[in-house]
Amino acid sequence: MSSGTPAAPSAETSAGFSAGTSASHFAVPELFRGLFDDAAVFPPGNLPVVEAVPAHRAHRTAWYADAVGPFLCGAGRLGELAAAVESTGPLRVGLVLPGGSAELGPALTAAAPFELAGVELATRDTAEAVAELDRLLPPDVPAAVELPRELLRGDGLDETLDVLVDSAYRAKFRTGGVVAEAFPDEDELAAFLTGCALRGLPYKCTAGLHNAVRHTDPKTGFEHHGFLNVLLAAQETDHAVAAEVLAERDGEVLAKAVRALSGHQVTVIRNSFTAFGTCSITEPLDDLAALGLLSPSPLVQEDR
């Protein structure tokens, strides 16, 4: 793939496309359904819970609702979240536990008022995390185990992924953060993606992926992966090929590759790369709109 510049964001935001219209009237392509978990309260967005909850509810009723995953919340903010939703109805929540296995039991108790969409458990001991999830997690609740990047170097990658292959849980990989060192390069990310692909191990990602195309942030200088790059690389089992896809900076090249995907390829990709956490829902949608990959095409004629 050739190098270039990322597509400019559309001047018309995604929310501007009839956001108040019933989601049942529009189709979100299968490749993007449930892809964007709402991490608005996490850095760098840091939206207050009292603002993030109504914003999430608006996303869940907009035409692009099928693209939006659960509301992500850390264990330490569940009380704040409970107060914010007390009189506004149920909320699907993804529980994020950065403190490891010791947080799991108390957090599950605290999350009782919510519809638990899943658990994301960070750990430095994958086997211990799997054992605790097996012991405490309700059988109908999915989970992802966040793997520290430093444990995935050398033989650690194979050993760690092999533990998860024999479990009921996804892997979770951090693709960015608030410092440059939090962003893995394309070789490191390709090793994770192809390691999972070779094992048939599903995963989610988090941080730094709110734009579609790989780019250098003009304000911070950080190298951001694009979520379209990751989607396309998710079907690859060859490290060099995956790294090349992750390095692509031309949005039109990526969009053309997305349009050429077969239904089977889309299924393979989304069975692998299941979702990512983003502090902005509208930014990734705007990028897709700018590339001509998402628009509110009606499924049925609206009443007039």
Structure notes:
By secondary structure, the chain is α/β, with parallel strands linked by helices. Helix content is 36%, strand content 15%. An eight-stranded parallel β-barrel has the order 1-2-3-4-5-6-7-10, surrounded by five helices. Strands 8-9 form a two-stranded antiparallel sheet. A hairpin with a 6-residue loop joins strand 8 (215-216) and strand 9 (223-224). The longest helix has 14 residues, at 186-199. The protein is globular. The termini are far apart. The model is unreliable at 1-25 and 299-304 (pLDDT under 50).
Summarize, please:
With 304 residues, this protein is of the alpha/beta class.
From the spread of the alpha carbons, the general shape counts as: globular
Radius of gyration: 19 Å
Specify the number of helices. 11
Helical/strand content category: alpha/beta
Helix content: 25-40%
* Average residue pLDDT: 89
Beta percentage is 15-25%
SSE succession = EHEHEHEHEHEHEEEHHHHEH
- Strand order, sheet with most strands: 1-2-3-4-5-6-7-10
Number-wise, the strands total 10
**How far apart are the first and last residues' alpha carbons, in Å?**
46 Å
User: Strand count, sense and closure of the main sheet?
Assistant: 8 strands, parallel, barrel
Question: Uncertain segments of ≥5 residues (pLDDT<50)?
Answer: 1-25, 299-304
